[in-house]
Design a protein that fits this description.
The complex is a heterodimer. Chain A is α+β, with helices and mostly antiparallel strands. Chain A has ten helices and 21 strands. Chain A folds into two domains: 221 residues, 3-Layer(aba) Sandwich (Rossmann fold), CATH 3.40.50.300; 166 residues, no CATH class. Chain B has a single domain, classed as MetI-like (MetI-like fold, Orthogonal Bundle). Chain B contains eleven helices and no strands. The radius of gyration of chain B is 23 Å and the shape is globular. Classes of the chains: A alpha+beta, B mainly alpha.
């Protein structure tokens, strides 16, 4: 059992590129920590540094209180599940799972017992004598898991373990992993680029971008209180809508109308800088919209009319797309998100910003028709237009974020 | 006849010609080896009198058996050493990024292109001075050297095909780099190692130029050299029957190897050429 501590860890490649920059993160004993971010954000590199497969250029990495910077992977008491499983093709499932124990000179009897136990947990008993080549993708994935749990290591490392499975199996294995992790109560770092996986699986999530840690927290906190535009855009599906706005002392002017800020938000904003008018980026989650006709108490929000361009029925809900005439919100962070999602290649609608609303299935909404929509102004997210930082972050957990001045109190 | 059938019969005819052209000399040598000394030069393809006396002769003469022993020993040792060294080198080339990697590959290619004939003279003098002339090491060293580039090339192609993650997985599982190589990488590279072994063995086995120049007695003379120096029954007779029999005896193991491992050898020669 072990706690993992990153202390100012940096990975610099010989060509000067910094894949991970001044990374600080504590993973307490028994926690399932998710590292999430778009490809190339340094999450895998961070994981491989824990495994000992990448050198640490700067900073200290501690496992269970000991600095392991210079320890070989085999001396770190870790187990890793690779993205492509990396099963030994020349060995049977049994030998694959027992390989580590064999290297550790564990008696054969004990190996056998541990392997069969793991095989029972993972439902691999009838496949023990087959070679990996004869297994299906899901079975291979389970063997890779088995190879990790047989050793009962102090740390599990998982590098996108589900990304090679098809969607249905992925959901199934996700719960499986969650179950195993809870049962073994082993400190785990899990790397993924899939925010759904991160939200459903993790005790806490660390969002990374371009080698920098953006925010760490439980899924609900990241969802409700994203610290900056990047986290806001990354967490949540469909992702948050962003509109340009003008912030005045107690209200914000949006392209879809003027919104009075609830008392709570005003307090969070505090006195704010000056209190005068300023440009902000306003974030609205699709689920904070509703068909106005279905809302009983409209006082907590604002209504407006929009022409629904595209309507997607998901059965339990609708996704309604409409365009709001405004300048496009531009921010480096959002550009990067769009690029990662492949949206950068799509033609832009130049006349405005596209907005997605998630509506109740009871709505009578029709594609191409105008609809009165309501949104919950209590759930507005406000970001500084220049820095992209949230104006509502309460600062209670600020010490975990990237460089921030120490609290003055 | 359709266009396709025409094409097919054309190819078949070409194939038959090629097969005959390459097999006739082999069959001819076999036939020669089965003729009695007096009928060797009678010009007929099929012997009038069948005999195995040529085979008996060469195995009784002693020159041939010692040459056979030398051939097997020298070829096996050179091949084993070459494959061992080459797998270490190829592994490093496939896995590690170190300065001068390209240069090492280029130099090893240059060695392979070096005309062997131009080395024989200097080697002859050198070997005589340092006492390697007419010894096993005297042949093993040049064989190994000339076999290394090819071995490094084929083996590094094989090693490159093995996913690096496997090795990292082994390391995480607690293996030292040596254990990872021995227990995970080497077993996976066995086909490659076997192929390289066979190719190198054939090269060493068939070599004539070093063998004839750097040996003089039964101490180290290999079969190709020994055959060339077979004594005739008298000064004026050519030992054609004996030569033919010896040629058959040394060709058989090579042919067997090739037939048995044909697919592997082809795979080895083209390894890395296309992504499998």
């Amino acid at each position: 059992m072990a706690e993992i501590e990153f202390q100012d860890v940096t990975k610099r490649y010989p060509d000067g590129f910094e894949a991970v920059k001044h990374f600080n993160l504590d993973v307490p004993d028994g926690e399932l920590m998710i590292l999430v971010g778009p490809s190339g954000c340094g999450k895998s590199t961070a994981l491989r540094m824990v495994a000992g497969l990448e050198d640490i250029s700067d900073g200290e990495l501690k496992i269970g209180g000991t600095v392991v910077n210079d320890r070989a992977p085999k001396d770190r008491d870790i187990a890793m599940v690779f993205q492509n499983y990396a099963l030994y093709p020349n060995m049977t499932v049994r030998d694959n799972m027992g390989f580590a124990l064999k290297l550790a000179k564990v008696p054969d009897e004990e190996i056998n017992q541990k392997v069969s136990e793991a095989a029972r947990v993972l439902d691999l008993e009838q496949h023990l004598d087959r070679k990996p080549a004869n297994l299906s993708g899901g079975q291979r994935q389970r063997v890779a898991m088995g190879r990790a749990i047989v050793r009962n290591p102090s740390v599990f490392l998982m590098d996108e373990p589900l990304s090679n499975l098809d969607a249905k199996l992925r959901v199934q294995m996700r719960t499986e992993i969650s179950r195993i992790q809870q049962r073994m109560n082993t400190t785990t770092i899990y790397v993924t680029h899939d925010q759904t996986e991160a939200m459903t699986l993790g005790d806490r999530i660390a969002v990374m971008r371009a080698g920098l840690l953006q925010q760490v927290g439980p899924p609900s906190e990241l969802y409700a209180h994203p610290k900056n535009l990047f986290v806001a855009g990354f967490i949540g599906s469909p992702s948050m809508n962003f509109l340009p706005g003008d912030l005045e002392s107690d209200r914000v002017r949006l392209p879809i109308g003027e919104v009075a800020l609830p008392q709570e938000l005003q307090q969070k904003l505090g006195a704010g800088p000056g209190g005068g008018r300023r440009g902000v980026i306003v974030g609205l989650r699709p689920e904070d919209f509703e068909d106005a006709s279905l809302v009983g108490d409209r006082s907590r929000g604002t209504t407006f009319r929009a022409k629904i361009d595209v309507l997607e029925s998901m059965g339990a809900e609708y996704y309604a797309y409409f365009v709001v005439e405004s300048e496009r919100v531009s921010s480096a962070e959002l550009e990067e998100l769009a690029q990662d999602a492949g949206a950068a290649d799509l033609p832009h609608s130049h006349e405005g910003s596209q907005v997605v609303a998630r509506l109740d299935a009871a709505s009578k909404v029709r594609q191409g028709e105008e609809l009165e929509l309501w949104f919950n102004s209590w759930h507005l997210h406000l970001f500084d237009a220049d820095s992209g930082q949230s104006l509502l972050a309460d600062g209670s957990d600020r010490e975990q974020a990237a460089p921030a001045p120490p609290a003055s109190s | 006849m359709s266009q396709r059938a025409k094409q097919r019969s054309g190819w078949s005819a070409a194939l038959v010609v090629v097969v005959i052209a390459s097999l006739v000399p082999v069959v001819w040598i076999v036939m020669l080896s089965l003729k009695t000394p007096t009928t060797v030069t009678d010009g007929s393809f099929i012997p009038h009198q069948w005999t195995l006396s040529n085979y008996k002769d060469i195995f009784n003469a002693g020159v041939f058996t010692s040459a056979l022993r030398n051939s097997i020993g020298i070829a096996l040792i050179s091949t084993a050493l070459a494959v061992l060294l080459a797998s270490a080198a190829a592994y490093a080339i496939a896995r590690l990024d170190f300065p001068g990697k390209r240069i090492i590959l280029a130099v090893s290619l240059a060695v392979a292109m070096f005309p062997q004939v131009s080395l024989v003279g200097p080697l002859y003098n050198l070997w005589r001075q340092i006492g390697l002339y007419d010894t096993w090491p005297g042949l093993i060293i040049p064989y190994m050297t000339f076999a290394l580039p090819l071995s490094i090339y084929t083996l590094s192609a094989f090693f490159r095909e093995i996913p690096w993650e496997l090795e990292q997985a082994a390391q995480v599982d607690g293996a030292t780099p040596a254990q990872a190589f021995r227990k995970v990488i080497a077993p996976l590279a066995t086909p490659g190692i076997a192929t390289t072994f066979i190719i190198v063995f054939i090269i060493c086995w068939n070599d004539f130029i070093f063998a004839i120049s750097l040996t003089s007695t039964t101490k180290a003379e290999t079969v190709p050299a020994a055959i060339a120096l077979f004594p005739g029954v008298s000064q004026f007779t050519q030992p054609i029957g004996d030569i033919a029999a010896a040629a058959v005896v040394v060709t058989v193991p090579v042919m067997l190897l090739v037939i048995l491992f044909q697919r592997r050898i082809v795979a080895g020669l083209t390894a890395g050429a296309v992504k499998g």
